[in-house]
From TrEMBL:
Residues 191-256 form the BTB domain. The keyword Cytoplasm applies. Residues 454-463 have a biased composition (Acidic residues). Component of the BCR(KLHL40) E3 ubiquitin ligase complex, at least composed of CUL3, KLHL40 and RBX1. Interacts with LMOD3. Substrate-specific adapter of a BCR (BTB-CUL3-RBX1) E3 ubiquitin ligase complex that acts as a key regulator of skeletal muscle development. The BCR(KLHL40) complex acts by mediating ubiquitination and degradation of TFDP1, thereby regulating the activity of the E2F:DP transcription factor complex. Promotes stabilization of LMOD3 by acting as a negative regulator of LMOD3 ubiquitination; the molecular process by which it negatively regulates ubiquitination of LMOD3 is however unclear. Residues 1-64, 425-465 are annotated as: Disordered. GO terms for biological process: negative regulation of proteasomal ubiquitin-dependent protein catabolic process; negative regulation of protein ubiquitination; skeletal muscle fiber development. It is found in: Cytoplasm, Myofibril, Sarcomere, A band; Cytoplasm, Myofibril, Sarcomere, I band. The keyword Protein biosynthesis does not apply. This is Kelch like family member 40. Belongs to the KLHL40 family.
Amino acid sequence: MPCILNTGVAGAGCNPREEVGRGGGGLADRSTRHEGRRPRKKSPETPPSGSGGSPRPRPSLAQGVQREAPFLGEGPDTPPPSHEPRGLVNAALGGGLCPAVCRASCAGGRAARLTGPGPPLYIARETTAQSEHAPGQESSALLERSAPARLRPLTPPTMALGLEQAEEQRLYQQTLLQDGLKDMLDHGKFLDCVVRAGEREFPCHRLVLAACSPYFRARFLAEPERAGELRLEEVSPDVVAQVLHYLYTSEIALDEASVQDLFAAAHRFQIPSIFTICVSFLQKRLCLANCLAVFRLGLLLDCARLAVAARDFICARFTLVARDADFLGLSADELIAIISSDGLNVEKEEAVFEAVMRWTASGDAEAQAERQRALPTVFESVRCRLLPRAFLESRVERHPLVRAQPELLRKVQMVKDAHEGRLTTLRKKKKKTEKGKEAAGAKEAGKGAGDTKAEEEEEEEEERVLPGILNDTLRFGMFLQDLIFMISEEGAVAYDPAANECYCASLSTQIPKNHVSLVTKENQVFVAGGLFYNEDNKEDPMSAYFLQFDHLDSEWLGMPPLPSPRCLFGLGEAVNSIYVVGGRELKDGERSLDSVLCYDRLSFKWGESDPLPYVVYGHAVLSHMDLVYVIGGKGADRKCLNKMCVYDPKKFEWKELAPMQTARSLFGATVHDGRIFVAAGVTDTGLTSSAEVYNIADNKWTPFEAFPQERSSLSLVSLGGTLYAIGGFATLETESGELVPTELNDIWRYNEEEKKWEGVLREIPYAAGATFLPVRLNVLRLTKM
């Protein structure tokens, strides 16, 4: 069984407190648990070395959040239509088209239960050889997912469902009836019908088919002389076998290969319970690879629940789905259903326009001609009013597909007029007045037949309709804001320095201690660090956590673990890869490393990259223009370095650059305004407040305005064109006159005009022990604190 070790510090080389004692600082001690693994007990907070007092209480994220963050990308769940149980088989999944009906389990009884986390998916039944319950005391089980071999004990229906005594007896009688019918089927008793599909025959009972399916009932009543034989065309014999098996046993096996055929069969034969099971199965397995197919299937079978779920999934990931080849195969109506949604997760309307143009230009000559004819209608769903004037003139108006149709040019001119504030003539649409509607209703009901006055009252008025291209309602994804993302063991909090607001992004406590975080140019957030010990892996049981933040669900996703656990390392990214550079081993000896691990974001695999020219830890790693920069740190002799080198993944080589003016480690570094800024940190003589800037084009370091206080582990963040400095450790004097390392949680910004640092916040909650990243997040998904 895997276990988790608390490795906030591991020896002298990885102890931030020791660094502070020598004039340095480090990351705060943090603990974590990992999803799917055994959580460990959280170690108590310890005060800084030499403080002699209790640690300052840290506010809890749970205390700061009063409610869950609303997810405005999805509307409220519409209550599913209720279906009265028909006939003998009434088992259905809750939350679907039919209410959940569970069977009693007693003598020979069975309970429908959804089992198995993945394909194949079974609805298994449990039977007992002898009854241990009197009638009315039977037990039943709610439909729920569980491992096939771990069926949970059945619970009395009075506890699980709160059923009345009469309802319990009714369910018990249904169970006995189904058991008896299945027994007669197995022994070939009273069989009066043969269902033929392909080359196979299925003897059964007409009464069972007619009771469970309006389709079969109508077939039998329409042709009573041929009721003994029922031929089903265009249906696979295997599908028919599964349907009949379900009608007699409430058991069904689902997987990706069979669910579509069963879904279509349930729709054709009008069996709502199988239909609902298939819908739930497809909803839970929506992914980028199948969302478009599921969306079209929902429309084809007129299943609003499935079509809406798939459409919402597509809208939330529109930029990724629009690159798929299946996207180009959508019909005009299907495309309009997607791009007309307010919940489209696009930051700019330009992405919608480009997707529509790619769709129009795809396919053979005949398909392109048909799509060009439909383009004026599709174009109404592109909110051109949200496009910048420059893009409208340079890209939209000059596009060959737009210039080829005068109607589209008129629409573009209408948008340009709206940009200039000129009123557009609105389309007129006839609309009946309330008085006219009442008269029409009376006429249809026969109440006003021959009444000429009612006919005269059918008045009409004209309603002015704004063209769709002038719709300036923002899409859901257009509420992105530049925020400072604070990641700690308590959770993740986003801070808006412009509005001075904090938002709760995640309450997850999976983040490991002494982690390192990274945000990519695609705005993806990763965290690496900590230590995970897997007892089952005898050869190499130690690995480190590697997590990715899911912006849509506000959760941390477990990624393939870091194969070589280490501390005081750096993270960088270039060309769809993430690099783990240097650090110190979390093993015996705590050896300083020059190795570089590479994670391929396309194949989801770890590998080794070219090693550094020297061993280093406590350094800074930055990424810019698909290059990885390594700055400062400490070498094998624990002396601070002023070295700087850059890695080019296209050339597979490291190159040394101009060294810093001050050798340092555990300092703040960021790319701001196309230059690299470093500030504060630890030197061989103690803490420093000095700062310097590196001009990438000139390969030259120059002095920069020093930070107001000597600190280590200072964080520099470039956000919205402003340079911020956050937190870190400083040596402060206590009341007794003793100097102790103290963690600070304040925020500073650099004033470009006055060339000085200015305080923003003296203390920001939830920043203790956190790492900080500049991230763009949708504030509609977050909860304001």
